[in-house]
Specification:
This protein has 182 residues and is α+β, with helices and mostly antiparallel strands. 22% of the residues lie in helices and 34% in strands. Strands 1, 2, 3, 4, 5, 6 and 7 form a seven-stranded mixed beta sheet that branches. The chain is globular.
Length: 182
């Protein structure tokens, strides 16, 4: 695997968009910019990308968990695929094997890990969805972290993103799940 760079992004949220204070919430993301071995190639066997995702999950997730101020509560993943690649290339890095090392690092993972993939040019933002790691129906923990890099993805690259947080959205008030919302 050819990794051009890894970027870690940590944010601590202390108020919502309206300025109403909340208990601090830490969100941390890792973005790995890797060479897409299938850029410009119509390839059916994407197992090489499965392994790349697993390796990055095992390497990056303990690093971002260590940067949280509290225990991990939420997780999510995303991929930006350069214009010479295909959306399926990002999916191949995210889905078959990335989850296992992420779940091991966060200590749980009963819930499906929310994800997002898109094909894009350099400096395109991606909204990485976050959800509670053990309770998919925890509406308070459905959140988003917007990520971007000014110099990635190049046409022949993939930006793999993994994020964790130690709390819910700031001041959530939309209900606690389907049983409470009608």
């Amino acid at each position: 695997m050819n990794v051009r760079k890894i970027v870690l992004n940590k944010e601590t949220v202390t108020s919502d968009e309206m300025g109403r204070t909340c208990a601090p919430i830490t969100r941390v993301a890792a973005m790995a910019v890797v060479k897409n071995p299938f850029a410009g190639i119509d390839q059916d066997d994407l197992s090489r990308l499965f392994e790349m995702g697993a390796q990055l999950g095992k390497t990056l997730t303990p690093q971002i968990v260590a940067l949280l101020d509290g225990p991990p509560t939420c997780y999510g993943k995303a991929a930006l695929v350069g214009s010479a690649g295909a959306m399926e290339h990002g999916g191949a890095m995210l889905h078959p094997k990335l989850g296992k090392p992420v779940r091991a690092a966060v200590g749980g993972g009963e819930s499906l890990m929310p994800s997002n993939v898109k094909v894009a040019g350099m400096a395109t933002a991606i909204d990485l969805p976050l959800g509670h790691k053990d309770n998919a129906w925890s509406f308070d923990h459905i959140d988003t972290m917007t990520l971007w890099l000014p110099d990635a993805p190049r046409a022949d690259e993939i930006v793999l993103c993994i994020a964790v947080s130690d709390g819910a959205r700031p001041n959530p008030r939309v209900g606690k799940g389907p049983a409470t919302t009608g």
